[in-house]
Amino acid sequence: MARRYFRKLAILAKVENSYAVDAAPTGAANAIVVSDVSVTPLEGQRVSRDLLMPYFGDQGFVLAATYARVEMSVEIAGAGAAGTTPGYGPLLRACGLAEVVTAGQKVEYFPVSKNAEALTLYANMDGVNHALVGARGTVTMTIAPNGIPRYRFTLSGLLGPVTDTPLPTQTLTAFQKPLVASKTNTTFSLHGLQAVMESLSIDLGNQVEPRMLIGSESIEIVDRKVSGTTVIEAVSIATKDWYTIARSSVVGAMTCQHGTVAGNIVEIAAAAVQIGQPTYGNTQGITNTSLPLVVCPVAGDDEIVIRVR
C-alpha cells in the first residue's frame, strides 16, 4: 500500500456558472498557490437514533446536513500587470466580493449583499481528490513587518465526489513572488496619520450558513461585519488623540498599500473606520497602541475595497 504524503497537495478553484454544478477546474487554468491548508472532508450533524432497548448501549447515529470545509492561506501579491485579475481572484469572489476590472489599470473587489458567487473547489491530497461545489466563505488579511502578507480563506461547500485522482499538473504563472512587509514596500494610513505600523489584521466577517432543507441545499452568506485590529507605534496626543476619537465615535479613512511597482501592488482601503478602545503595549521596549477597528459602510456595500494594480 503506497503512502500518501501530507505536503503533496493541489488546490483548484473555479467560479461556477450555475450554483453547485461542478465547474470542472483544471490544473492548467485554476490552480491556487497555497500554504497552511486544512481540509475537513465531512462536517455535519450527528442525529442520535435514541432507541429504547432491553439493555444499555449506544445505538449509533445518522449523519445529517453534511458538507465540507477547506481553510488555506494565500500570499497577498499582485497579478503581474495592472488590470490583470490575480490568480486568487475566484477565492475573493466566493467570499461575497464582486470583481470589477478596469483594463490596464486595476482590478477591484467590492462587497455585495446578494447574489454572491460560488466556487467548485478541488482539494487533491496526494491522489485523493475531495470536490466541493457551491462553496462560499470568508477571508481575513494579515500584514506584519518582515513577513509575507497573507489572506486566510475559510470556504464551505456541498459535498462532491471523493475519488482516487492523480495530482494535476499545475500552471501557476498567475501568481507573483510576494514582497515582505517593510518600510520600503508597505505604507499605512489611519484617520489621516501615516502610522508606524507593527501589524494589521482585517476580517471580512461573513456569516456563512450551510442551509440544508428539503428541496434545497446551499451554502449562504447571510451577513457581513468587517472588523480588524492594528498595532501602531504610540504617538503624542498632539499628533493624534486616539482617546477622543474613540469616545466621539468618529469614523475616518484607512489605507494600507503593499508593493510599489505596477503589477505587484495590493491596496486595502476603507472610507469609514471607527476606532474602539485603545490599549497600550510595547515591542522591543518601545510603546505601542493597539486599536480595534470597526469598518462601516457609507452608502452600502462600500465599506472595504481590495485593489490589485
Question: What does this protein structure show overall?
Answer:
The chain starts with 8 loop residues before the first strand and ends with a strand. The longest helix has 7 residues, at 242-248. The protein has helices at 27-30, 89-93, 242-248; strands at 9-15, 31-32, 35-48, 61-75, 97-102, 106-111, 119-125, 128-143, 150-164, 186-190, 193-194, 197-203, 206-213, 216-224, 227-233, 251-258, 266-275, 279-283, 286-295, 305-308. It has 309 residues and is mainly β. The chain contains three helices and 20 strands. Helix content is 5%, strand content 53%. It has an 18-stranded antiparallel beta sheet that branches. It has a two-stranded antiparallel ribbon with strand order 13-14. 35% of the residues are buried. The protein has one domain (9-43, 64-308). The protein is globular and about 75 Å long. The model has no long low-confidence stretch (mean pLDDT 97). Pfam families: Phage_tube_2 (PF18906).
Task: Note the total helix count.
Answer: 3
Q: Can you give the helix content as a percent range? A: under 10%
Main pleated sheet: 18 strands, antiparallel
Shape: globular
Mean pLDDT: 97
- Measured by DSSP, the beta-strand proportion falls in over 45%
Provide the low-confidence segments as ranges. Answer: none
**Gyration radius over CA:** 22 Å
Order of helices and strands: EHEEEHEEEEEEEEEEEHEEEEE
Question: How many β-strand stretches?
Answer: 20
End-to-end gap: 48 Å
- Count of discrete domains: 1
- Judged by helices, strands and strand pairing, the structural class is mainly beta
Pfam families: Phage_tube_2 (PF18906)
